[in-house]
Amino acid sequence: MNRLQIYRALYKHDKLKNRRSPIFEQNMVAKIFVGIGTATTILYLVFIAIILALAANSSSWLEGYELMFAVLPFVLVADFLFRFIAQQTPMQLVHPYMLLPMPKSVCIESFVIFSILSWGNLTWLALFLPYAIMSVLFQTGVLCTLSFLIALQLFIILNSLWYMLCRTLIIHKILWWVLPLAVYATVFLPWIINDFGYFSEFYGRFGEWFTHGNVLAFMALLAAIALLFFVNLKVQGYYIYKEVTGQGGKKMKSVTTFNFLNRFGETGEYLKLEVKSIMRNKNVRNTFIMGTVLTCMLSLLIAYTDMYSDSFSTKFWLVYVFVLYGAMTLIRVMSYEGNYIDGLMVHKENILVLLRAKYYFYIFLLALPLLLMLPTVFMGKYSLLNLVSMAAFSAGPVFCLLMQMAVYNKQAVPLNTKMVSRGSVETNWIQVVFELAAMFVPVVIISILMIVFSDTVAYIILLVIGLVFVVFHEYWLRHIYKRFMKRRYVNMDSFRACR
């Protein structure tokens, strides 16, 4: 096969991979909700484009194309973060082809190209195109408008390649988060050292160059895209070779016993399993560390800045601080255990004890955001009732909702290998729906309660609801266990297929 034939074959396989997935059927309903969410996002971007266009048309100090380029850094940061939800790195797709008689470099190269040419990279046109029609077309003409749109789309492609590189590095070492943070901090440096007006004028100049077809500007942008393209090929090729050959493995030098958990009997043994899984397995550990870091950062931002002081933000971010751990890790309940599910099914009610231990462990973790948010009580942003109520509501209905995924998760997520394993690819859209419900439904409930009752009464109701769920957790955990056991053979077959 020549290079073009390999591209065509891999493209066809990539399109068929979801239909071949063992969880294809269970994703159909969730994909409908994701489709609705995507359509809503596009409408939202069009709405933002109209607002920005009206602002640009009434502005006397920035041209239409200059304003969009002043907004572009914010768009790139949002695009980078959203890609963590939806975009896979090419190395996550290579595993089935590693033993085939084809050039591995061509295989990696093809998936990088597919990522660049994916329809997802056109999403931001819902923002750029309406804006260009309303604020650029009649000011500069058709050719300049096309140049403007092409430049913006090239920046999105550049950001896509940048995401691939950063995600590849972060998967292997979580400290690589410093790299994108440093780069985006540098992008916003003109605002930091001066003010937003200077920031807008600074990036507005780039808008003038690209809109009026400056050849050197486009050459520099294309050179940056080409550089990131080849860097991605080298970096991802290096890491996939490292994982396939098993390099970089660590020997365990000591064994931690956690004898103080022995008093809890069988539940204590599964608590040990949960803690040791975080300590010993790279993927579990990275997710836990990321959840801890994000919880700490968000708590400190809320406590010591005025960024989230309006009515909606105070409700939403208080919910998010407490839900974050569960939304990142508890949502994957049974996915990591799918790697050794046969051992867990040996004794009766092992799964029930496992679920109980996980629930206790994540209730204990709620102490971290509770302690970090205590300064907000002394500053007057929240009351102690607000924090305790939200912690109880998270431990109750929210964790109950997230643990329902024990029934629906049928894809084993690797404990250590990440880049080349099929199980590392997040294809279960039901998880997305449950995560969104866990984050937004509590905000809706709080808002409705505050309309009907006073703030104090609303939070007391949340506290009571949360405590009822916590007190009667054995009942709903057993209900989840019974539903899991009814589907155990289907789930076990799917776990085995994904390993």
Structural account:
The protein is mainly alpha-helical and 499 residues long. The protein is built from 24 helices and no strands. The chain has helices at 3-20, 24-58, 64-86, 104-116, 125-135, 137-140, 142-172, 178-187, 189-193, 196-211, 215-244, 265-280, 282-304, 311-328, 341-344, 350-365, 367-372, 374-379, 384-403, 405-408, 429-452, 455-471, 473-486, 488-498. The radius of gyration is 25 Å and the shape is globular. The model is unreliable at 419-427 (pLDDT under 50).
What descriptors fit this protein?
mainly alpha, 75% helix, single chain, 499 residues, globular
Task: Write a compact overview of the structure shown.
This protein is an all-alpha fold and 499 residues long. 75% of the residues lie in helices and 0% in strands.
Sheet with the most strands, sense and barrel status: none
Q: Tell me the helix content.
A: over 70%
Q: Give the C-alpha Rg.
A: 25 Å
Spans of at least 5 consecutive residues whose pLDDT stays below 50 are 419-427
The share of residues in extended strands comes to under 5%
Question: What gap, in angstroms, lies between the N and C termini?
Answer: 30 Å
Q: What is the total tally of β strands?
A: 0
Mean pLDDT: 78
H/E order of the elements?
HHHHHHHHHHHHHHHHHHHHHHHH
Determine the number of helices (DSSP H or I, runs of at least 4 residues): 24
Look at the helices and sheets and give the structural class: mainly alpha
Shape: globular
